Amino acid sequence: MHEFSLVSAVIDSLEDYSVQQGWGQVKKVTLRVGAMRQVIPETMQFAFKTACEGTTLAGAELELVNVPIVIKCPQCGRAWGEEHMGMICPYCGCDDAQMTQGMELDIDSVEVEDDGEKED
Ligand SMILES: [Zn+2]
Known about the structure:
Helix content is 26%, strand content 28%. The protein is an alpha+beta fold. It has a 3-stranded mixed sheet, covered by helices on one side. A 3-stranded antiparallel sheet has the order 4-3-5, with no helix packed on it. α1 (3-21) packs across α2 (41-52).
């Protein structure tokens, strides 16, 4: 279950931010996860919950945003996705195509509880 190692890397950086920014309780974390990461959402949720225990993120909710794969040809400029997974351009045959999207594991946003200032 590689979700655990992905999640602990994310939590490590969130804990650093949390200390730097003086965050209160983290309510929700939104992660952008590329399709190439082959993450199983349920496993990711479980890993996140487990790895958060005993950290400043305990109890935070996790939202996953799936980022589809995009491969782009540098020669003809066309792009394609999972329907043609190869790295050879289906349009011009160029074999130097690059994956431009799909490897993401980015923190998109974090919702933090406001300490002190209560809105009512
Ligand atoms: Zn091409």
